[in-house]
Amino acid sequence: MNVVSVADILYGYISKNTEITIQGWIRTRRDSKAKISFLDIYDGSCITPLQIIAYDNLYNYKNEILHLTSGCSVTIDGIVSASIGMKQRVEVIAKSIKILGWIENPSTYPITAKNHTMKYLREVSHLRPRTNIIGAVARIRHTLSQAIHTFMHKQGFIWVPTPIITAYDTEGNGKMFCVSTSKNQKALHNSKEKTNTYDTHNFFGKEAFLTVSGQLNAEAYACALSKVYTFGPTFRAEYSNTNRHLSEFWMIEPEAAFMTLDDIIILAESLLKNIIIVLLKECSDDIKYFINKIDKNIISRLENFTNIKFNCIEYTEAIKLLKVCNKQFNIPIHWGTDLFSEHEKYLSEEYFKSPVIVKNYPKSIKAFYMRLNDDNQTVASMDVLVPGIGEIIGGSQREERLSTLDQRLQENNLTQENYWWYRDLRRYGTVPHSGFGLGFERLMIYVTGIKNIRDVIPFPRTPKNVNF
Amino acid sequence: MNVVSVADILYGYISKNTEITIQGWIRTRRDSKAKISFLDIYDGSCITPLQIIAYDNLYNYKNEILHLTSGCSVTIDGIVSASIGMKQRVEVIAKSIKILGWIENPSTYPITAKNHTMKYLREVSHLRPRTNIIGAVARIRHTLSQAIHTFMHKQGFIWVPTPIITAYDTEGNGKMFCVSTSKNQKALHNSKEKTNTYDTHNFFGKEAFLTVSGQLNAEAYACALSKVYTFGPTFRAEYSNTNRHLSEFWMIEPEAAFMTLDDIIILAESLLKNIIIVLLKECSDDIKYFINKIDKNIISRLENFTNIKFNCIEYTEAIKLLKVCNKQFNIPIHWGTDLFSEHEKYLSEEYFKSPVIVKNYPKSIKAFYMRLNDDNQTVASMDVLVPGIGEIIGGSQREERLSTLDQRLQENNLTQENYWWYRDLRRYGTVPHSGFGLGFERLMIYVTGIKNIRDVIPFPRTPKNVNF
User: Locate the Aminoacyl-transfer RNA synthetases class-II family profile domain: which residues (chains A, B) (predicted)?
Assistant: First the structure.
């Protein structure tokens, strides 16, 4: 028998009158006078369910089919047919319906057809991919991830798996998780007693942490292979319980030799627009689902994003705009302070009403590795701010001049010894190079319009939460 | 000016007589009577260097060009020309050569044109991508990774980023790294004193670890979206200083609802063959480089791999073969023991002389989640063994029957409470499902023939080593 997916049937890859087998789960069941039942089936291949027609001549119609509830798993043999109803183009007339798994006590099944709050769904993160909304999120995330790999590949970038366990604090803020081995390596679930003794030095020979960025390592590869990118998990041990922060999140970090700040600004804009064009094309039904549920303007918002030229302004200009706008900010702003969420939102949502790139921030608020500009006050850095989110990308040209790098290390109380290999990249055939980091989950909340970042990653890790 | 890559020129995308700019690093310089110099340039886009012809009429010929050494970075404007020499089809006649970065003290440059040992290169992991061999490894890894994403996507699998930080020990062997926060969160590099106090419970509210597998989480998504896969880092806190073990490595873990053990055996074979076909096509020059350096039979070995049907035998049959082979093993083998490296190698290298799949291992040596066979003694598991490596893939059909799962949890001293959400997948619309894990770096050593796994990942993490 020809085993196919719901998408295969609904998107027309299967001709009518073909005998097929379909495997999935019941979304809903409607009965008509107990002589015919309409089963909506999903299997994750697309958001639209497939309608199955079950007549009462099926041997298990009364005893089983009339008892099917949302979430039951089934294997159905049937024939693809033109639908008589108006809701769908094709449906499947069942020849047999085999029930694989029932729902234990359907009245207490945590995922029913009714709408649940996103907060409630987080408590059943193992079951929430069965809902329409989280299923759509999963397909959108997959499509964006594929589009990113494809785009980077076509641009000549090589994927580099930079290390997760590291001895370096790239961002220099010390908000890192420590990695250690338990002194008495007991399996968690076997031990009743808590193992509170950790051996931090023994395994790796020095203190080890979870990476906050693959950038420094990616630079080593860019200084040999020209164009590289990372796509992997990164970590922040910050007690931030906001709807924009995760302790564990994924980042894409392109790093390119011979590129200047302006080159990576072009790359960033091109990457974002390109992957959203792919998304609109390949996930149109999933995106349409969000119109009613999340953001009625989602399609025009995303189409607009791909069509407009991003605004690009100097940090100094941004400060001027924020000072003259007569808006009361919680955190006062002046030249030399970092932009906070409220400032970023004003710029992108109220002033420009579009994505905006702010560049050349003061060196005092940026990391040691950013290239010092000729004014000696600012560094060749850039942030991409988008409406509704704020910063989605942060990047810079890297300091390629050894003497300037050494001066910046010193200003940041960092030692040359610790960064010996990073300095080597400047001692031996140094090149101008630049890169940026794109927070994958920030991108997800931007494209979907979903409010809380915990809902765009399968199993979110946040303070006090390492469930599932 | 038209900025292009070495590959653009060598693979013929640029017509002759085109004016181009090329940016890269010097591999070698040869001079002919100080009137003309031949510079071999690399930029990471391919293994073959581009020959640049520099005549002595260039303004900096004597003062700069004649002093160029391996590793110097340059920007060259020139014209693509048919080569007079036999070694290459095209070359570039330089109109200007701008030196971007010199080599500080060339006689001590760690990466010279001469051959270094792989062990030595590990000590300069930040510079080793500049060598031909590690550059080739990077392109091969990228090509395989892209091929895996593309293959899985075409098969209808959705990429799922399963969590890195977890409270679960999927394999049940307790060899996990602990994740904690330092009690006095000091930036590593700023603090002279060691911070030896770790707060293991406070941040996440319970003990947290680095994942050994994304499987349990992937199962939750497969039981909603049918076909999913992970591609991410996994960790083992094992003191294994072998050439096949890393503390941090990448795994691909497909997980598919409605698939049986035999279905994923077909998937595994198809995945491996497909990505190697892509590799042979897209990285042929990199692969050819390995003929002289690593494995003279690499191409026939890989082509053969894609052409033969894998052998598939029962564990029970494997034990019989190992018992009658008259070979002295260090670890004696009998029904009920696990296969060790020497046994796996005998089967794939000596007996079958080809990849071999061993299936249906005794339940006593396998994890709780594998599906119990009708004999009550074995589980529906499979390992793919390849010559030179041993196990490259391990997989199984998962236990989808709640009562059997509960029995297996009990036999393994695991509590139902701890696995409440994993049990839910069986309580609500359970389905047969299967999956496997493919170790990405094991795959890399198989395809390249490189002996030590530390040489196929950019910055290896092993006991006592968290450098770079």
Answer: 139-458
Question: Whose CA is closest to B56, among B47, B46, B64?
Answer: B64
User: Which range, B139-153, B203-217, B320-334, is most confident?
Assistant: B139-153
Confidence of residue B195 (pLDDT cuts 50, 70, 90): very low
Q: Which of A188, A410, A411 to mutate to test the interface with B (most CBs of B within 10 A)?
A: A188
Q: Number of A to B CB contacts under 8 A, please give it.
A: 367
| CA-based nearest residue to B172, from B369, B15, B360, B8 | B369
ipTM: 0.95
> Residue B347: is its pLDDT beyond 90?
yes
Residue of A nearest to B457 (CA): A161
Q: What is the pLDDT, as a whole number, of residue A85?
A: 77
- Measured in angstroms, the CA of A302 and the nearest CA of chain B are apart by 23
Q: Which of B109, B164, B429 sits opposite A248 (nearest CB)?
A: B164
Closest CA to B70 of B18, B30, B16, B34: B30
Q: What is the CA radius of gyration of chain A?
A: 27
Of A456, A212, A199, the C-alpha closest to B180 is: A199
Asked whether B394 and B264 are in contact (CB, 8 A), the reply is no
Which residues on chain B are in Cβ contact (under 8 Å) with A75?
Answer: 258
Average pLDDT across chain B, whole number: 93
Is A107 exposed, middle or buried (CB count within 10 Å of its CB: 0-12, 13-18, 19+)?
A: exposed
Q: Which residues have CB under 8 Å from B307's CB, separation 6+?
A: none
Distance from C-alpha of A36 to C-alpha of A29, rounded to nearest angstrom: 10
- B129 with A225: Cβ contact below 8 A: yes
The answer to whether A198 contacts B200, with C-beta atoms less than 8 Å apart, is yes
Q: Which residue of B has its CA nearest to A156?
A: B45
Nearest alpha-carbon partner for A252 in A347, A394, A74? A394
Mean pLDDT of chain A: 93
Instruction: Please tell me which residue of chain A has the smallest CA distance to B240.
Output: A203
What residues have CB less than 8 Å from B300, skipping those under 6 apart?
none
Pair A120, A131: CB distance under 8 Å:
no
pLDDT above 60: residue B163: yes
Query: From residue A453, how far is each of A118, A127, A171 by CA, in Å?
Result: 11, 18, 22
Candidates B76, B151, B189, B415, partner chain A, best to mutate (most A CBs within 10 A): B189
What's the rounded Cα separation, in Å, for the pair A278 and A297?
A: 18
Which of the residues B25, B99, B188 would you substitute to probe the A interface, choosing the one with the greatest number of A C-beta atoms within 10 Å?
B188
> What span, in angstroms and rounded, lies between the C-alpha atoms of A10 and A16?
11
Pairing mode, strands B208-210 and B177-182: antiparallel
**CB distance A162 to B459 below 8 Å:** yes
Among chain B residues, CA nearest to A145: B159
* B154/chain A closest Cα distance in angstroms: 11
- Distance CA(A89)–CA(B180), nearest Å, equals 55
Look up tokens 């970590």; give the residue.
A235
B232 contacts in A (CB within 8 Å)? 232-233
φ/ψ (deg, to 5) at A37: -125, 145
Q: Which H helix or E strand runs over A37?
A: strand A36-42
Helices (H), ranges, A226-325: 261-282, 284-293, 298-307, 315-324
CA-based nearest residue to A61, from A102, A97, A28, A108: A97
Q: How far is A215 from chain B (nearest CA, A)?
A: 12
pLDDT in tens, A98-136: 999 999 999 999 998 678 999 999 999 999 999 999 999
- pLDDT score of A87: 79
The rounded distance, in Å, linking the Cα atoms of A347 and A341 is 10
